[in-house]
Each structure stands twice: as structure tokens, then as C-alpha cells.
Amino acid sequence: MYKVMRWTKSSSQLRASPLEIEGIVYETQKDRAQVLRSALLERRNLADDVEEPAEAIEATMRLDLDCTVTRDDARHACTSTGNTSSRADGITVVMLKAAWPSISTAVTTLFQASLRLGHYPQAFPEAEVVMIPKPGKDLTTARPWRPISLLSCLGEGLERLVAKRLAWAAITQKVVHPQQAGALPKRSCSDPALALLHDVELALCKRKPLRSSPWTYKAHSTLSFATDSYADCWNKAGLNRRDG
After folding, report:
1. CA distances (Å), 225 to each of 207, 210, 215, in order?
2. Residue 237: pLDDT band with limits 50, 70, 90
3. CB atoms < 10 A from the CB of 19, how many?
């Protein structure tokens, strides 16, 4: 009902703000798109890339990855995201959910073959770049515009499936360090900070300044102890836990 009511409202007649780059004003949508592409996407070249390592790195162990894909695995990988924006191929997550009973077998077969052969379909990396304006900024320049890449929903589903299986295999096969945080299931990036905070608070609770001491001495001793506690906890978190 609310979507139908939108048609009763007249569309805004205001045009997008023109862009002014190096003293030249660009007004049409095509010109604005081209100048944003040049200013944001083509400002780097191969000379700015990171140099390859001088020596090739040989893997010391092999990571066994499960290549079996069920229909539920493929469905969850493709339709569990909340992003409903249209992509370059015109397929959205809503469309995948609606058509899943008819395409589930084909998508599952495609994902399983991709894992087994180690092949990523060439059509999936093709992306449509959309410029998103930053709120509250001057949109007449290129700096407030942020480019985002809209990949194929099926391609993102395959990437999501591979990423989760790689993370799970890395944990179960003990490839990553036990204290590794981030990019792994149940390993939040904030865990090291919380662990350090817990150690500091525990150290502060174990030793308190004497009540009979003057206030100045009490404050100084508390501050000194807190500093020592923080230093000790930082050393333990940065050195001992790294080796553990």
C-alpha cells in the first residue's frame, strides 16, 4: 500500500549538483560519471601497486576443504544477506528467493563444481560501480563521493560459501594461531581489547592503596600501580599470548 502511495507524490525537479574539477564544471550525468571515474578510480596505476615478494613462499601444509555443497548451503549463501540492491546483471536477492525452488539444483551444481575444480566463473567478478555521496558534504567536488562495487548476487554467494568454509577449516585444522582474532567465526576483532581490559581491571582489584595514607600519596600510588599494571598487561598480551 505504501509503495503504491509513492506514485501519488510528484518527483523532485531538482537536478544533481554539478561537479567542478580543476576549474571545469560538469553538469550532465554522463560527464559527471566520467569525471568521477577519472578522479576516484583511475588515480592509481600499476606503478603504485605493491611489489611482489622476491622469493616464492612454499606452503608447509595443505588445507583440506570440504567441496560438498547441499541445497541448503547454496540457499543460505545466496539469500541470507539483507542487501537488495540491483546488480549489473539485474538479479537481486529478492529475485533469487522467489526463483529458488526452480534454480536451486542448477546453483548447487554450479557451486559444487566451482569448489571441486577451483574455478571462479568469469562473469562473477564483473561489477557495477555506483557513486554514493557522503552526507553533509559539498557534492560539487569529487572527494565526498564514495565508489562501491556491486557484484553478482550469485558470485557473492559463492564467495560467502568459500569464506566460511576456509575459516572453519583453518580453525579445525589448527592453521591459524589460537589467539587470532577477526575474519574467523566466534573470533571478534574486539576480543583482544576486552581481554586486555579484563586483565587490567583484575590487576587493579588485587591491590588497593592503604586508607591511612595521605590523599596525595594514595593518588600517586594508585596511578603508579595502574601504570605498572597496564604495562605488565600490555607485555603479557603482546608477548606471552603471542607465543601461547
Report:
1. 8, 13, 15
2. low
3. 20
**At 114, phi and psi to the nearest 5?**
-65, -40
How far apart are alpha carbons 204 and 139 in whole angstroms? Answer: 50
What are residue 132's DSSP bridge partners? 146
Going by the DSSP 8-state scheme, the letter that residue 184 receives in this structure is B
Query: Torsion angle of alpha carbons 112, 118, 124, 130, nearest 10°?
Result: 120
* CA neighbor of 36 nearest in space, from 167, 168, 129: 129
**Percentage of residues in the chain with pLDDT exceeding 70?**
76
- Taking every pair of C-alpha atoms in the chain, what is the biggest distance, in angstroms? 79
C-alpha angle with apex 146: 145 to 149, nearest 5 degrees? 135
Q: Are 153 and 126 in contact (CB under 8 A)?
A: no
**Which of 208, 206, 188, 203 shows the shortest CA–CA distance to 234?**
203
> Beta 19-21 vs 128-133: how paired, if at all?
unpaired
Highest mean pLDDT pick, 5-9, 21-25, 164-168: 164-168
Contacts 24+ apart (CB under 8 A), 187-194: 192/237
Amino acid letter for position 111: F
**Strand, coil or helix: 132:** strand
pLDDT tens per residue, range 14-64: 466 788 888 888 888 888 888 888 888 888 777 777 777 667 777 777 888
For residues 18 and 33, is the Cβ–Cβ distance under 8 A?
no
Q: Which of 118, 194, 120, 203 is nearest to 157 (CA)?
A: 120
Report the length, in residues, of the chain.
Answer: 244
